[in-house]
Amino acid sequence: GKFDHCGIVVPGYSKSKADELDASNLLLLEATAGEGIVARPLLTRLEMSQSRQVLLLPLAMPNERRNDQFYEPTPAIDATEKLMNKQLEEFRNKWVELSKEKNYSRAHNTLGLVGSIAYAFGYHTRNAGPTSPSAWLVSMALKEAKAFKKK
Known about the structure:
This protein is α+β, with helices and mostly antiparallel strands. Helix content is 45%, strand content 11%. It is built from five helices and three strands. A three-stranded antiparallel beta sheet has the order 1-2-3. The longest helix is centred in the middle third of the chain and has 28 residues, at 75-102. The radius of gyration is 17 Å and the shape is globular. The mean pLDDT is 84.
């Protein structure tokens, strides 16, 4: 597929234990030209999208079964999920604040242009990192949440 933008779903700002389990409390963390790095309510963001198609890829842990109504997660999966959510919350807070401090919104277009030029010259074949600021933010969030194993 071809994508022009990406973000990562992160836990919302929870005031109570019930908020943590509420699907309407999920946020989409994304890098934007107009507002910098922002975390918006996922449902609101999907409703305001002008895209015809939006693809959400869920994170799943080994041996986790999301479509089994009788499945009970193991204590290890629960602990891992809590750790990942905590890491994603910290990442969200850090980057939203850093974006405001450093005025990221002014640099977003330049970073995208540099990434496009690097891609056009084939630099992406020598560097494993993403060339898009949005993809970079998502990659960093997954890395900090320890969502994958290093080789």
